[in-house]
Amino acid sequence: MKLPLASVCTPGRIAAIALLTLLSCSSSAKSKNDIVVMQNGDRFTGEIKGLQRGELLFKSDYMIDSVHLDWKRVKELESKDTYIVTFQNGDRVTGRIARVPGGAAGEEFQVLAHDGTVRVKSPEVIAIQQREASFWDQLTGSVNYGLSFSSDNSSINSSLGATVAYYTAKNSVYLGTTSQFDSQSKTTNTNRFTFDARYGHQLTEKWLAGGIAALLKSNQQDLDLRSSFGGVAGRRLVQTDRTSLLLLGGAVYSHERYFPQAGSAPASNAEALIGLTFSTFRFKTVDINSQTLVFPSLSDPGRVRLGLQSNLEIELVRNFYWDFQLYENFDSRPPVVAPKNDTGVTTSLGWKF
Predict the structure, then answer these.
(1) Beta strand pairing call for 116-120 and 171-183
(2) Under a CB-based contact definition with an 8 Å cutoff, are residues 326 and 310 in contact?
(3) 78 close to 98: Cβ distance less than 8 angstroms
(4) Number of CB atoms found within 10 A of residue 279's CB
C-alpha cells in the first residue's frame, strides 16, 4: 500500500485532486419555506443555511446574500429539511429542527431524529449544518495560494494548500495538503510537501477513535519521504460555540527515506503519539487553529519527533480570507546526518466553502 501511495501523491497531483473536488461541489435543492422569528417580532421566511459561532445564517429569495442572526435573539424557528446538530457536550444528532418558546424545563430546541425527539436548551446548540442529499454537496473545504518575489536575489517563494472535509452525525473525514517551492539565484531550489488524512468516529459525547495517515517531503531535512500510519483515541476537553480543545493519544508506524548519502538506507520506526488540537474564533472575523503532535519512538528509545502547525485566518470578504501559517517539524535524532529542524512561515490568500 505504501509504495503506490507514495508514487502517486506528488504535490501537483494532490493539489489538482483537491481543487477538482472543491470545484465539483454544487448546492442541492432545499426547501425555501423555513421560518425564523426574532424576539423583537421580525419574521423571516427562506432557507436556514446553518449555525456557527453563535450566528444563524439565513437566506431569503429577496436577499442578495445570507444574513447573520444572533442565535441568542432567535425566538422561534422551524424547517422541514434535515440538519446535523452539534451540542455543547460534543454529541451530534441528525434530524429536522425546531425552536419553540418555553418548553419543559426551558428545553426550547428540538431535533426530530429517526429514533425519537431530542430536546435541549437553545444555548447548548453550538452548530447546525445542512444535511445534503448528495455526498459531494456535503463536502466543506478551502484552497489558498501565496507568492512572493524579491528582485535583489531573484528569490521566489510559492505556496499552495487545499483541504476537504466530510462530516456526518458520528463520522468525520479530513484531507489536507500543502506544497511549497523556494527558488533563489546561485542556490539549490528547495521544496516541501505534506499530505494529511484523518478519520474520526464518535464513541460517546466526549470520546472518539480513528486513524491517521501522513506524508512529508522536506528538502530542508534531506527527507525524501516519510510515510506514517496509525490509530488514535481522543477526548474533548473543551467544546463551545467558539472554542474547541481535543487531547489525542495513540501509536503510529513510520517509514522514512532520506536523500542518498553514504551508509543511508530506508528505515522504519514505531512511535507513540500524544497531541493537542485547538481552535478558536474571535472578533467575528478571526480564526485560530493549532495542532501539536509529539512522537516518542518505541523502536529507537530516546528519539522524539514533534510536528506543529498553527494558522491565523482573517476574513476579508465573504468566504475569502488571509492566512498566516507557522509550521515546525523537529527530529531529535535523525537516522542520517541531517538538520533536526524544518521551520517556516507562509502567507496566502484563500477561499473556503
Answers:
(1) unpaired
(2) yes
(3) yes
(4) 16
The x, y and z cell numbers of residue 321, run together, are: 480570507
Task: Annotate the chain with three-state secondary structure.
Answer: CHHHHHHHCCHHHHHHHHHHHHHCCCCCCCCCCEEEEECCCCEEEEEEEEEECCEEEEECCCCCCCEEEEHHHEEEEEEEEEEEEEECCCCEEEEEEEECCCCHHHCCEEEEECCEEEEECHHHEEEEEECCCCCHHHEEEEEEEEEEEECCCCEEEEEEEEEEEEECCCEEEEEEEEEEEEECCCCCCEEEEEEEEEEEEECCCCEEEEEEEEEEEEHHHCEEEEEEEEEEEEEEEEECCCEEEEEEEEEEEEEEEECCCCCCCCEEEEEEEEEEEEEEEECCCEEEEEEEEEEEECCCCCCEEEEEEEEEEEEEECCEEEEEEEEEEEECCCCCCCCCEEEEEEEEEEEEC
Q: How do the pLDDT tens digits run along the chain, 353 residues long?
A: 333 333 334 444 444 444 444 444 434 456 788 999 999 999 999 999 999 888 899 998 888 888 889 998 999 999 989 999 999 888 889 999 998 876 555 568 999 988 888 989 988 999 998 887 677 777 889 999 999 877 766 788 899 999 999 988 889 999 999 999 988 777 778 899 999 999 999 998 899 999 999 999 999 899 999 999 999 999 999 988 889 999 999 999 999 999 887 666 788 999 999 999 999 988 778 999 999 999 999 999 999 999 999 999 999 987 899 999 999 999 999 988 889 999 999 999 999 88
Amino acid at 81: D
Question: What is the Cα–Cα distance from 137 to 164, expressed in whole angstroms?
Answer: 12
User: Full-prediction pTM beyond 0.85?
Assistant: no
